[in-house]
Amino acid sequence: MRLVLEQRGETGLALRMASPLLAVALALASAAVMFAALGADPLVALHAYFLLPLSDSWGLQEVAVKATPLVLISVGLAFCYRAGVWNIGAEGQFLVGALAGAWLAIATHGAAQGPWLLPAMLAAGALGGSAFALIPALLRTRFGASEILTSLMLVYVAELLLDWLVRGPWRDPAGFNMPQTVTFSPAATLPLLAEGGRLNLGTPIALLVVIVAAFVATRTLKGFEIRLLGEAPRAARFAGVDAKRLTWGVFALSGALAGLAGILEVSGTLRQLQPGLSPGYGFTAIIVAFLGRLNPVGCLVAGILLAVTFIGGENAQIMLRLPLDATRVIQGLLLFYVLACDTLLLYRVRLLRSVPA
Amino acid sequence: MPGRVRHLSATMPLLEARRVTRRFGALVANDAVDLAVPGGQAHALLGENGAGKSTLVKILYGLLQPDAGEIAWRGAPVPIPDPRAARALGIGMVFQHFSLFEAMTVAENVALALDVPEPLPRVAERLVAVSRAYGLPLEPQREVWRLSVGERQRVEIVRCLMQDPRLIILDEPTSVLTPQEADGLFATLDHLRAEGRAVLYISHKLEEVRRLCEAATILRNGRVVATCDPRVETAASLARMMVGTDVGAARRNATAEAGPVRLSVHALSLPPPEPHGVGLDGASLELRAGEVLGIAGVAGNGQDVLFAALSGEQAAPAADRIILDGAPIGREDITARRRRGAAFVPEERLGHAAVPRFRLSENALLAGHATEGFAPGGLVRRSRTLDFVDRISAAFDVRKGARDPEARALSGGNLQKFVVGREILRQPRLLVVCQPTWGVDAGAARVIRQAILDLARSGAAVLVISQDLDELLEIADRIAVIFHGRLSAPLTAAQATRERIGLLMGGAAMAEAA
Amino acid sequence: MTLIEAILLTVITASTPLLIAAIGELIAERAGVLNLGVEGMMIMGAAAGIAAAITTGSSAAGVAAAILAGMALAAIFGLLVLGLATNQVAAGLALAIFGLGLSGVLGAPFVGVPRAGIGKIEVPFLSDIPFLGPLLFRQDPFVYASFALVAGVAWFLGRTRAGLVLRACGENAAAAHALGYKVLRIRFLALLFGGACAGLAGAYLSLVLTPFWTSGMTSGRGWIALAIVVFASWMSWRAVAGAYLFGGVTILQLHAQGAGVPIPPQAMAALPYLVTILALVLIMQARGGGSTAPAGLGTPFVPDR
Questions:
Q1: Distance between CA atoms of C250 and C14, rounded to whole angstroms?
Q2: Care to name a GO molecular-function term for this sequence (chain C) (predicted)?
Q3: Which CATH number describes the domain made up of A2-352?
C-alpha cells in the first residue's frame, strides 16, 4: 500500500470550509486518546477543556481576554505567511511591545499622567514591536540571512531583556524583592468593559483590527500584492511588486500588531510587567494563523478556539491534575492536522496497492 | 546472413506497446496506443503538444504505469515498474529537460545512472572511452553547470550509452541545439544505428524526421492516427496528420515601411542573476516602429537577463542604456515602463507570466493594475478585471470551462493565448515577447504569431526572443543572435539563412558580426 | 586540572549535543528536506531518555528510547511533508511546538528526580598524556560518538554511492526520480536519521549534561543546530567548527558570569543567540549572496503518476 497524491481541479468553497473543521475534529479525537492515556476520563477532560470555559459569563470574558492577543498577533502573521515571509518571532515582538509601552507607564508613575498616556502607550507598544520585527527584516533583505532563525533567536533575547528589566532597573522598590514592576496607575490601565471580569478595551480594538485587515486582504491592491509575492515571487516581480519593501512592510505590520497585543495585555490584563507575562501567545498565534487559513476573519474564529484551550488547560490541570503541557500537545496536533487537511484542498489522496514488481 | 537478421527483426519488433491506455483524471492521455519498433530502426513518434507523446514515453521508460494494455520486449510482455527495469531490458532515455544534477560532476552524473555500482574513477575511465568512441568529448571532473546546453546533451547521451542499450529514446533532442549541433547529433544517431541500435525519436520538427527516420507513428489527442514511412511523405502531409487540418503559416503582409526608432539599447552589460548563469555583455540593438526584430539563440545565453533588462524587472546600470521613444528608461521599473506603453510576455507561463492558482481576473490584474484602471485608489474593481478577461477570451479564442477559472485549469495553448492577448489588447507601442509559442499546439501558435504580426503592422515595435529558429524565420523582419550575453548585428530576412544564423548561435564568427 | 583544561572540557560537553543534532539535520537537508522541528525532536529525546533511564535503571535503555522518540517525531514530520506534501516550514514549527508539549507531559512525573550521569570512558595510556590526554581520551561515550558521526557522515556523503544518491535527491528531485530513484523513500530515511541524531542529542542533555529533567531544557539548542547547518555550508567537517564556536560562546559567558564580569547575567545569557544571528549574517556576507544550499532544499516533491 502506498499514499498517492493526485492534483485536484479547483477547490470548492464547501471543501475549503470543511478542511479546518475536519482538522479540529481530528485534534479532539487525538486529545481524547491522550487524556485516556494520562489516566483521565476522556469525556470529562474534553468537557473541562472545551465546554467548561464557555459555560459562564466569567469564563466567556476570560476567553475573550485570552483570544485578544492571539487574534491580533495571528492577523499580522497571516499577512507575513501569505507573503512567504516566515516571521516566527512574534513572541519576542509581543514582549518588546509590552516593554516599550510599559516604559511610559513606569517612567510617569507617580508623576503627571493625563488622558494622553494610554494612547501614547499603545503607540509605543506598536512601534516597539515593529522596530523589533524590522531587525530580521533587515537581516533578510540586506544580508539574505534566514528570517526564520533570526526572528526566533530574538525571542530569547527579548525574554532575557524583560527578565533583566524586571529584576533590575524597573523592579518595584516596594515589591519585597519580587521580580515585577510597579502596578500601573488607573491612567495607564485600559478601562474594563464590564464589572466582575477582566474584559477590557483591548478586545474591541482587536475586532476593529480584524475588520480593517479583512478589507485590506480581500479588496485592495496591496492585499493582492502580498498574496502574489507569496504565491509566485517571479510573477510578483513581473507585476512590479517591490519584494524588499513588501517584506519590510509585512514584518513591520506583524511586529506592530504583536507589540500592540503586548501592551494591551500588560495595560489591560496584568497591569504590571513580570517575567512570565506571555504563556506563549506568539507561538500559539502561529497555529491560529494557519487554522484561520491565513485570513483575518478565520484568525478571529481560530483565536477564540485556541483561547478556549488555554483556559481549558488550566481547568484540566486544577480539576484532573493533567499537566499544563497537554495544552501544547493539543495545539501542536491541531497544527499537524490543519496542514494535513490543507493537502486535501490541493490534492486527492488515494491509497494504492503497490504495483507488483 | 544480414538479410535473415533483418527479416527476423521485421517480424518480431524489439519493443511493442499494445493497446496502452493511460488516464489522468478525466483526460485520456493515451487511448489504446499501439507502437512497434523493430531492432535497428529509427522510429519517429510524432504529435502536437498534448497529443500524448510524453506520457507514452514515460510508460516505456517505467516512469508511469499504464491503466490498460501492455509493453512487449522482443515479443514477450514485460512489466516495467521503474526506470531501472527499463534500463535492464536495454532501453535508454535522453530527456528533453535534462535530468542532470547541476552541482555535481559529469562522472557523478553518469555514475547515478549506472545500475551496477562502480567506483567513480572507473566510471570516469569508461566514460572517457565511450565518449571518445562516439566522438562526444567530455571532461569527467567538470561540474555540469559549467557546460553548454549541447555539452549537457552529450552527458545525457553518453550516460545512456554506458548501459549499452538496444533502444534509445530521445525526447525533442534538437529543440535546444543550433542547426550545426543538430547535424552533429544526427551523425551520432547514424553511428548508433550502424551498430544495430534502435532509436525512438520524438519530435515535431518534420524535416528532421523525414531525414532521419524510416517509420513514424503519429499521435493526436492520445490516439494513434497514422503510421507511415516519413521518407515518402511531405512535411505538409505529416503536419496534416498531426494536426488533423491544414495549418498555414501566419500571413505576412508586405514589409511595412519601418517607422522611427522606438527602442534602443546601448552597450548594456548586466551580471547574471545567479552565480552560474550568463549575463549581458555590451548588448546593443535598435528596434523601429512597425517591425518585428527576432533574437535567436540557444537557451542559456542571456535571454532571461535581456528580457529582465528590457522589462525593468532588473534595472540597467544607467538610465540612458535603454531608450524608449527618446526617453531614457534604464532605471525605471516595469510599472513605469508599462505606463509608457510597453508590454511584456515572459517565457515561463506558470509562475512568471501567470500564477497557476489565481483566477484569470487576478492574472489580468497582475499585469494591468497600473495601466488599465483596475484598481483606482488602490481598491480592486473586480468587475473591470472580469470584463477584461471576457474581452481577451473573445478576441483570442481562449477556451475555458468557466468564465473565470484558475490559470492552472487552462491548457498550455489557451493560457498562452490569454497571456499574449492580455498584452496585445492594450495596443502597446512596444511588445517584448519571449518564446511566444513554446509548448503550444499548432492552432494556438498560429493565432499568436498572427496577432504579433498584426500588432507590428498597426505600428507597434515588436521584439521576439525565441529559441525556435523556424518561428523567427516566419515572423521576423530582422534577426539578431544572442551568444554568451553578446548580441550580433541583425541580419535582414534576406540575409538570414539557417546556416548563417546557426553559426552565430554556436558562437562562431561573433567577432565578424559584432 | 588547570582552568584552561576545565574550560575546554566544558566546551566539549556544551558543543557535543549541538554537533550531534546538527549532523543529523545536515543529512536531512542534503536530501532536500528542511526540518525545523529539531528543537521538538531533541527535547523529546531528552524526556524519553530520562524517563526510560529512570524507569529501567539503564542508561543504555535511556539512549535507545531517546533515539526512538526522535525518530518517531521525524516519522510524523515525514508523513506530513513527504506523504502529504505540506509546507515544510509550517510542519517543522508544528513539530517543535508538539515536541515541547509532549515532552512536558511525558517528563512531568520525573521532574527533579536526580540520577547519576553517564560516566566517562578512559582510553588506557592515551588518557595519561598531559593536557591532551584528559581532553581527548577521557570523555563520555557521546563525545566519541559525535566525532564518529561526523567522520561517518563525511565518508558517506563524499565516498559512497548511497551518499551520492542522497545528494542527488536534494539537488534535483525530479531528475533523481526520472532515473528511477525512490526520492520520497530516501528523503524519509534521511529524516529518520536526523530524528535519531536529534533524539541522541537530547539524551545527552538529560543523561549527561544536567542529569535530571526540566521542562524546556533544550532552551533553543535545536534552533541553534539548524543555524550551524547553514553556517557549515552543509559540509560535515565545518559543522564541527560551528558547533564548537557556539559551545565555546555558551561556556565563555558562563565563566564570565562566574568571574563577576560587571555585565548583567541576562546580557551574557543572550550572547549565544546574538552570536548565532551574527554568524548567519557573516556567513551570508562571505558567500557574496551565492548559495551553497542543496538546490532542492525545502521544495516539496510530488511524483506525477
A1: 7
A2: transmembrane transporter activity
A3: 1.10.3470
Distance (Å, rounded) from C-alpha C181 to C-alpha A153?
A: 38
- Average pLDDT for A194-208: 90
Which residues in chain A have Cβ-Cβ distances shorter than 8 Å to B379? 219-221
Q: What angle do CA A156, A160, A163 make, to 5 degrees?
A: 140
Nearest to C173 by CA among C68, C30, C53, C11: C30
Q: Which of A295, A306, A290, A297 is nearest to A338 (CA)?
A: A290
Q: Report the C-alpha gap between B323 and B316 in whole angstroms.
A: 11
Taking phi over 0 as left and psi of -120 to 50 as alpha, with beta for the rest, B497 belongs to beta
pLDDT in tens, C28-49: 999 999 999 999 999 999 999 9
Sorting pLDDT into bands at 50, 70 and 90, what band is A6?
Answer: confident
- As a whole number of angstroms, the distance between CA C167 and CA C31 comes to 6
Q: Identify the CATH class of B261-341+428-513.
A: alpha beta
Using a CB-CB cut-off of 8 Å, the residues of chain B touching C284 are none
Q: Which residue of B has its CA nearest to A8?
A: B25
* Residues forming a β-bridge with B492: B478
Interface predicted TM-score (ipTM):
0.90
**Which residue in A235, A237, A357 is closest to B354 by CB distance?**
A235
Phi/psi of residue B381, each to 5°?
Answer: -100, 100
Q: Which three cell numbers stand for residue C120?
A: 566517562
Residues B295 and B477 sit within 8 Å (Cβ to Cβ): no
Query: What CATH fold (topology level) applies to the domain C3-112+148-286?
Result: ABC transporter involved in vitamin B12 uptake, BtuC (1.10.3470)
Residues C157, C236: contact at Cβ < 8 Å? Answer: yes
C291: closest CA of chain B, how far (Å): 9
Closest chain C residue to A3 measured between Cα atoms?
Answer: C83
Task: Report the length, in residues, of chain C.
Answer: 305
Cα-to-chain-centroid distance, residue A123: 19
Q: Could you tell me which residues come within 8 angstroms of residue B260 by beta carbon, excluding any fewer than 6 positions away?
A: B288, B289
Contacts of A333 (CB under 8 A, 6+ apart): A26, A27, A30, A31, C98
| Phi and psi torsions of B153, nearest 5° | -65, -35
The residue in chain C having the minimum alpha-carbon distance to the alpha carbon of residue B24 is: C305
Query: How many Å apart are CA A65 and CA A266, to the nearest integer?
Result: 12
In A, minimum Cα distance to C271 occurs at A157
Amino acid at B307: F
Confidence at residue B84, expressed as pLDDT on a 0 to 100 scale:
92
At residue A356 the predicted structure's pLDDT band, cuts being 50, 70 and 90, is: very low
Q: Do C277 and A330 touch (CB under 8 A)?
A: no
Q: Is the pLDDT of residue B21 over 70?
A: yes
> What is the structure's pLDDT at B513?
41
Compute chain A's Rg from CA coordinates: 22
According to the model, what pLDDT value does residue B511 have? Answer: 46
Residues of chain A contacting B70 with CB distance shorter than 8 Å: none
Q: Which CATH number fits domain B2-243: 2.60.40.10, 3.50.50.60, 3.40.50.300, 3.90.10.10?
A: 3.40.50.300
Across the interface, which of C86, C270, C284 has its CB nearest the CB of A145? C284
The verdict on a CB contact (< 8 Å) between A239 and B367 is yes
User: Has residue C243 got a pLDDT over 90?
Assistant: yes
Give how far B22 is from chain C: nearest CA, Å. 10
Does B333 sit within 8 Å of A240, measured CB to CB?
Answer: yes
pLDDT tens column, C115-150: 777 777 777 777 777 777 777 777 788 999 999 999
CATH code 3.40.50.300 region(s) in chain B? 2-243, 261-341+428-513
CA distance A285 to B507: 57
Q: Do A332 and C277 touch (CB under 8 A)?
A: no
pLDDT average, residue stretch A51-68 = 91
